[in-house]
Design goal:
The protein is 36% helix and 19% strand. It has 243 residues and is an alpha/beta fold. It has one domain: Alpha-Beta Complex (Lambda Exonuclease, Chain A). Strands 2-5-6-7-8 form a five-stranded mixed sheet, sandwiched between helices. A three-stranded mixed sheet has the order 1-4-3. β3 and β4 form a beta hairpin. The radius of gyration is 21 Å and the shape is globular. The N terminus is likely disordered.
């Protein structure tokens, strides 16, 4: 069993808080995940984090060399500079109303001429209907970043956006031929921008709900149709016959 915090405060990332906004959110799974080390899930493939980091480096290098972002970010601007995103241990806010430490790691904080900030999050993925299903998580995630940024003196924030960077896998044989290198090959990406509403009122009810579930002495009722709960029940039943 995972050890509970010695103090009433507990940590949750803005992205994890966004799970509470999903239609299929299961309070029982959330409780179990916060109090036990469950044998579910697995490590997120590191290649996606590497690609998101590469997108960030491309943007920062454009500012450093040309004093402006890449053209595909122009619709969000105009910008004059960027702020290197703070390291996760320094990017958080303690919410006294709930006793929650809300944490995060924004991909990009871009600065307008008037000093206002735009927070962006890079997603190495096609902008598809499946991605749209995760939109509630992303809205909470980015609004959480905005609240933390302003509390850490990095505001004001007046715009939030998702930047989907999609690998370009179609093209002519000539294009594929030119993509070859001695060490392997290069691949192009196309960017799609999507605004996320700035909504400060989105977070408080979710934080109160997260606190309520976390403090429950026993797991709350499962969400109807939760597949993870079904798997956990099957595992528990099977374990009864193990030596």
């Amino acid at each position: 069993m995972a050890e509970r915090d010695a103090t009433p405060r507990f940590r949750i990332s803005a992205k994890d808080l966004g799970q509470l906004a999903m239609p299929e959110f299961c309070p029982r799974c959330f409780w179990l995940d916060r109090h036990y080390d469950l044998p579910f899930g697995g490590p997120f493939p590191g290649i996606f984090s590497s690609l998101d980091s590469y997108s960030k480096k491309i943007v920062h290098a454009s500012f450093d060399r040309h004093g402006a972002p890449p053209l595909w970010l122009a619709p969000l601007g105009p910008f004059t500079s960027y702020i290197p995103p703070p390291a996760p241990p320094k990017f958080y806010i303690d919410d006294d109303a709930t006793g929650i430490r809300l944490t995060g790691a924004p991909d990009g904080i871009l600065v307008r001429a008037d000093g206002r900030k735009v927070i962006v999050d890079y997603k190495t993925a096609k902008h598809t209907a499946a991605q749209d299903e995760l939109r509630p998580i992303y809205e909470v995630q980015l609004n959480g970043y905005a609240r933390i940024a302003e509390s850490r003196g990095l505001g004001p924030v007046d715009r939030l956006a998702l930047v989907y960077t999609e690998p370009i896998t179609d093209g002519s044989p000539g294009l594929f031929e030119s993509a070859r290198t001695e060490e392997g090959f290069v691949m192009g990406f196309r960017a799609t921008l999507e605004d996320v509403p700035l909504d400060p009122d989105l977070l408080p009810p979710l934080m109160r709900r997260a606190r309520e579930i976390y403090d429950a002495p026993r797991p709350p009722k499962r969400s109807p149709g939760c597949e993870d709960c079904d798997r956990f029940a099957e595992l528990s039943l099977a374990a009864q016959d193990w030596p």
